[in-house]
């Protein structure tokens, strides 16, 4: 039996994930009160229940019950139930955009701004993200792509063989992304910002890429970074890590970091891993 706890940020795709698992034959329960988790676990141990695979949705709607979750998880583990945690995440910008499109209130911002609710939720849910077996960032995923990721992990039997990598460009003046595992500073590379013809462009544009990559230090840095990733990733997998967030930062997050992020992602996509790219500050 696979017992999957589906959780994460509100608006990141938990409902879609549960629907995908339900379609795959999982017995799904959404928003079960945390206080009932041990009783639910007892039901799973009952052979007469004949439940093969279970997906349980738990999120911030549990209110104060979220604070009891860590203790409850230890209890069901002690009872002999092995569980996996699927954590759905997305950037604050994307979550805010989704809330505005649907015109729904955030569970923690009934009397305030959605931005404040997202920030509070991210802080409260951090312990679950840290403990998660799988983390899927849905910022750039279509619903179809999310379904493919979930099928790959929970339906097709690969169970995490596809290591998930997110390569994120950012600007140091806007702050380092909170969820990055590795941070690399490319502010030592020549800056196209000082060329007035190049300044309006981004690292997605060929003139910027040509400017950055024509310098020997850029090529050498990319080679060394690629070599380091090829060493680190198999060792992360060996230790049970299923996802990696790589942050590439320059001053504003528009030129050098975007270029190196794109170039590194191109190389990583040659490996048998799932690679996603996000340019957090490119439009600032």
Question: How are the SSEs placed, and which strands pair?
Answer:
Elements: E1 2-8, H1 14-23, E2 27-30, H2 37-45, E3 53-57, H3 69-78, E4 83-89, H4 92-102, H5 114-131, E5 134-137, H6 143-155, E6 164-171, E7 182-185, H7 206-213, H8 216-238, E8 243-250, H9 256-268, E9 274-279
Parallel strand pairs: 1-3, 1-4, 2-3, 4-5, 6-8, 6-9, 7-8
Helix pairs in contact: 1-6, 2-3, 4-5, 8-9
GO molecular function: ATP binding; GTP binding
Domain RapZ C-terminal: 164-282
Binding site for ATP: 8-15
Q: Mean pLDDT score, rounded?
A: 89
Low-pLDDT stretches are none
Order of helices and strands: EHEHEHEHHEHEEHHEHE
How would you characterize the largest beta sheet?
Answer: 5 strands, parallel
* SS class: alpha/beta
* Anisotropy-based shape: globular
Head-to-tail CA distance between termini: 47 Å
Q: What is the CATH C level class of the largest domain, in words?
A: Alpha Beta
- What is the CATH topology classification name of the largest domain? Rossmann fold
Helical run tally: 9
Count of the domains? 2
Number of strands: 9
CATH architect. name of the largest domain: 3-Layer(aba) Sandwich
Indicate the proportion of strand residues: 15-25%
Strands of the biggest beta sheet: in what spatial order?
Answer: 2-3-1-4-5
- Helix percent reads 40-55%
Question: CATH H-level name of the largest domain... which superfamily?
Answer: P-loop containing nucleotide triphosphate hydrolases
Radius of gyration: 21 Å
Domain RapZ-like N-terminal: 1-155
Binding site for GTP: 59-62
GO molecular function, one term: ATP binding
Binding site for ATP: 8-15
């Amino acid at each position: 039996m696979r017992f999957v706890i589906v959780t994460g940020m509100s608006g990141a795709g938990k409902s879609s994930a549960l629907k995908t698992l339900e379609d795959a034959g999982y017995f799904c329960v959404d928003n079960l009160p945390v206080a009932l988790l041990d009783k639910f676990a007892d039901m799973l141990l009952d052979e007469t229940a004949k439940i093969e695979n279970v997906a349980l949705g738990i999120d911030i709607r549990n209110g104060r019950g979220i604070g009891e979750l860590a203790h409850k998880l230890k209890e069901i583990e002690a009872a002999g139930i092995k569980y996996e945690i699927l954590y759905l995440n997305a950037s604050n910008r994307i979550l805010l955009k989704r809330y505005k499109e649907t015109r729904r209130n955030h569970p923690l911002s009934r009397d305030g701004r959605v931005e404040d609710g997202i920030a509070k939720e991210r802080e409260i849910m951090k312990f679950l993200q840290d403990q998660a077996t799988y983390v899927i960032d849905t910022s750039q995923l279509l619903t179809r792509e999310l379904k493919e990721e979930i099928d790959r992990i929970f339906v097709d039997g690969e169970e995490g063989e596809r290591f998930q990598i997110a390569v994120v460009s950012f600007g140091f003046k806007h702050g380092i992304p909170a969820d990055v595992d590795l941070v690399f500073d490319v502010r030592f590379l020549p800056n196209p910002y000082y060329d007035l013809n190049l300044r309006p462009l981004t690292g997605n544009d060929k003139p910027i890429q040509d400017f950055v990559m024509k310098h020997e230090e850029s090529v050498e840095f990319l080679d060394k970074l690629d070599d380091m990733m090829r060493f680190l990733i198999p060792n992360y997998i060996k230790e049970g890590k299923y996802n990696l967030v790589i942050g590439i930062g320059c001053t504003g997050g528009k030129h050098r970091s975007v270029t190196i992020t794109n170039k590194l992602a191109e190389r990583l996509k040659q490996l048998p891993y799932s690679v996603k790219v996000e340019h957090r500050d490119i439009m600032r």
